[in-house]
Design brief:
14 helices; Rossmann fold; five-stranded parallel sheet; binds cytidine-5'-triphosphate; alpha/beta
């Protein structure tokens, strides 16, 4: 997404560097527009290096490309952080005496500002009247927070933390069609211990499940994410998301318990975790050795089918979604197997994806088909796991009562 970050002349400008980094890390194309004053706090080379885009404060550069309106027109979101009392007053008056001013007038994108100033300036009737006007015009006012200010005094006026600004600003452009929907998503792969150092596991990275949790939360859903052995880096965004509560599960039995608890008041259950079908019949207290001969063959017992159980006990209106990872000889056979699996498990929707040694598991891309009522193929989706997740939620949303 094209995001413009306006930076104005306050000490909190240094924190905006982190905000820009977060947005870049999130995959956005960020153009920073500092005011002249902001450059006294953080210099132009920093903004260019961090945003990977050219930075100017002036409307007189790049005139051929009509930069003073082009940036505003191309922006899908504008964030002003920090927003000083002076900038807030200029925005209210519609002044356009620098590149940030012209951009703010030229844009039709959502605008969020993160005020930062001393408490007296924030409380001044002029500032409060300006804030009211901006709010009426649809500008999102993020913060300020209460806390210690630069002069050693404290009170409202502190800029929100960059993570909060990024999250709340990005939420402005997201579709909130799942607002308040309670969902539970399982992700990752269970591990069934054999002894204190060994387990039976699988290659699921949890990426698709985490993407499903994030997509739902970004669309406003309240999400419980039951995570089985997912790498911290894969979990990072979900762990920070205000609408996601994470529960960790190790084995199939633990995952089953966590799912049943969370399912009680969930409207949608998405079972994306790769659950071990079998577990060792016995778990040794000590490490098994070659000498013991116990590693030659391992007796397994079947785990319960968690999703089939959830589907059998679902309450009216609750939607249950299962996944199937298949290594098909041909696509027709894959769909036929998926249809049978959907019937067997008694779920509403079954998302089937093709996996193999090279496909599916640790990759960031995926390709799936969603099978619904009567075995109908309701959707085919491919692309990033996040894009696939959003397509799956579109199908789920269409199936909600
Ligand atoms: N699943 C489950 N409990 C299990 C095994 C699987 O809830 N003990 C769920 C998975 O989370 C997934 C769906 O069932 O949503 C399909 O998993 P899959 O392993 O493809 O199904 P199986 O019934 O094990 O079929 P297969 O014999 O093809 O492996």
């Amino acid at each position: 997404m094209n995001i413009v970050v306006g930076v104005t002349g306050g000490i909190a400008a240094y924190k905006a560097v982190h905000l820009v980094r977060l947005l870049i890390k999130d995959g956005h194309d960020v153009t920073v527009i500092p005011t002249e004053d902001a450059l006294r706090f953080v210099g132009l080379p920093t903004w260019e290096a961090i945003s990977r885009n050219p930075v100017t404060t002036s409307v007189h550069e790049d005139v051929a490309k009509v930069r003073h309106v082009a940036l505003g027109q191309a922006a899908e979101l504008v964030i002003v952080a920090p927003a000083t009392a002076n900038t807030i007053a200029k925005m209210t008056a519609g002044l356009a005496d620098d590149l940030l001013g012209t951009t703010l007038l030229a844009t039709t994108a959502p605008v969020a500002i993160a005020p930062a100033m001393h408490t007296e300036m924030w409380r001044h009737p002029a500032t409060q009247a300006n804030i009211d006007t901006l709010r009426e015009r649809g500008v999102a006012i993020l913060g300020p927070a209460e806390g210690e200010l630069t002069g050693g005094d404290s009170g409202p006026g502190r800029m929100l933390e960059p993570e909060q600004i990024a999250e709340r600003a990005l939420a402005l452009i997201g579709d909130r069609d799942l607002d308040g929907l309670r969902v539970v998503v399982s992700a990752g792969g269970t591990r069934e211990p054999l002894d204190p150092v060994r387990f039976l596991g699988n290659r699921s990275s949890g990426r698709q499940g985490v993407a499903l949790a994030l997509a739902a939360a970004d669309r406003g859903a309240d999400v419980v994410l039951v995570a089985a052995h997912i790498d911290g880096a894969v979990m990072a965004d979900a762990a920070r998301h205000p609408l996601i509560r994470v529960e960790h599960a190790g084995t199939a039995a633990e995952l089953g318990d966590a799912m049943r608890r969370a399912a009680e008041d969930a409207a949608v259950i998405v079972m994306a975790a790769a659950v071990a079908d079998y577990r060792p019949a016995e778990v040794a207290d000590g490490k098994l050795t070659k000498e013991s001969g116990l590693l030659e063959s391992i007796e397994l017992v079947q785990n319960e089918d968690i999703v089939a159980g959830l589907a059998a006990r679902r309450h009216p209106g609750q939607i249950v979604v299962a996944f199937a990872a298949e290594t098909p000889q041909d696509r027709e056979e894959m769909i036929a197997r998926a249809r049978r699996k959907r019937e067997r498990k008694g779920v509403d929707l079954l998302v089937v994806n093709e996996v193999g040694w090279e496909r599916g598991f640790e990759a960031s891309e995926n390709a799936v088909q969603v099978i619904g009522e009567g075995g109908a193929v309701l959707a085919k989706a491919s692309g990033s796991k996040r894009a696939v997740a959003d397509d799956i939620w579109d199908v789920i949303a269409a199936n909600l009562g």
